Amino acid sequence: MRSTTTAAARQGRFRRRGLIFLATATAALLTACSGAASGPAGDGGGEAAPAPGKDDKLTLTVYSKFNNREYGVVTEGLNSLKKKFPNIEIKHEGNQDDDKLTQSIRGGNPPDVAISFFTDNLGAWCHSGSFLDLKPYIERDKIDLNVIPEAVRSYTEFEGKRCAMPMLADVYGFYYNKDMFAAAGIAAPPKTTSELLEQAKRLTQFNPDGSIKVAGFLPNMPFYNNQAQIWAPNWDAHWLGPDGKSNLAASPEWKEMFNFQRQLIDFYGHDKLTQFKAGLGDEYSADHAFHRGKIAMMFDGEYRTAFLKDQAPQIKFGTAPPPVADSKPQRYGGAFTTGTIIAIPKGAKNPGASWELIKQMSLDTDTLVQLGNGLKNVPSTTTALKDPRLEVDETFRPFITMFESGKLLPNPTTAIGDAHLKAVNDFAERWQAGSEPDLEAGLRRVDAQINDELAQKSGGR
């Protein structure tokens, strides 16, 4: 969910890429918010707060990270609540990150509604009591959560506790440069990783001095959307075992994924890749490498279609499901998914009215279609997905198809936030540089690191 405006983009709209920031924010959540406030608002138990009367006058404060063009789109969606409650005013405070949200909860002055891009923090928020349990509201209003795909329901709850609702979704597919494909005599995008490897080599161009001119597919991780969590579903690689512990070293899927990465690193040469990557533009600027014809294929979210049409209309591109491991052909058509979440913070002054706004933003078809068209994200209910007003062109349609595939895989929600993601992405960086020569031994150390953090958090309950 990104703006097509460069200034907005550089504010850091991501859920997946700001791993250092996320680790800091998660630590703050776990330490600062562990003491939940007393009473129903503090633990989310008990009865749901009553809905406001139609003529009640009050103001709801909403924190979000949206700004610039996107801020206006979301504000319009928020104000649609006036159709039902004409006397409720919405005070939308954009450019509020999770750290500011945490501080407001800790200081006893939270907003009435919190919107966050950082779904990986949800487990920490639920675990600490920072967000209210929405179960009493859902049961009172007889909400049918089956209108939300299972994978989306999964990343908006923690250990059976629903403390947030989805507000649009992201699906990560595959982008390819049609002109480069035609020049290389390639008829269709790859469906398997062996095809991806072969096409990457055919599409790569080297300068006379041997440096990389155009990369068929950039294997550096983490960079752009080359993130372990975005790659993992394509190999059907899972983060946690049935016992809730990290078990990467015993997973053939994780090993296959990292060995695939190694083949591309060896083809290009790590030093050449480092030099090439240093000259590439910012992910959310017009200088993005794909926009400039510097890479031929990549993983990215549905929001990139809007970026390309706005910032690089000269690029003829196609979209498709991401290629999958040769050993997992049944995974083709699926993808990684995540999304924006919306919740009632602990200590909110008007929780009953907050819930009405959350229902509007997460379940109302008119609002979701308006937001989906304005932000170029995937609506997070099946009803909105099928609405004829949803704007779907040939490059956006594959993301809708993937979303409806039943093959989406989100990140697991854990009490340690995104610490497991950061651990694996840090390992990937060392692995590609050659400083982790033994794959299984390196993954065992990552397992131990993640399991130690999980055990510490479990022991603190």
TrEMBL record:
<dbReference type="InterPro" id="IPR006059">
    <property type="entry name" value="SBP"/>
</dbReference>
<keyword id="KW-0732">Signal</keyword>
<dbReference type="Pfam" id="PF13416">
    <property type="entry name" value="SBP_bac_8"/>
</dbReference>
<keyword id="KW-0813">Transport</keyword>
<feature type="signal peptide">
    <location>
        <begin position="1"/>
        <end position="36"/>
    </location>
</feature>
<protein>
    <recommendedName>
        <fullName>Probable sugar-binding periplasmic protein</fullName>
    </recommendedName>
</protein>
<comment type="similarity">
    <text>Belongs to the bacterial solute-binding protein 1 family.</text>
</comment>
<comment type="function">
    <text>Part of a binding-protein-dependent transport system for a sugar.</text>
</comment>
<dbReference type="GO" id="GO:0030313">
    <property type="term" value="C:cell envelope"/>
</dbReference>
<dbReference type="InterPro" id="IPR050490">
    <property type="entry name" value="Bact_solute-bd_prot1"/>
</dbReference>
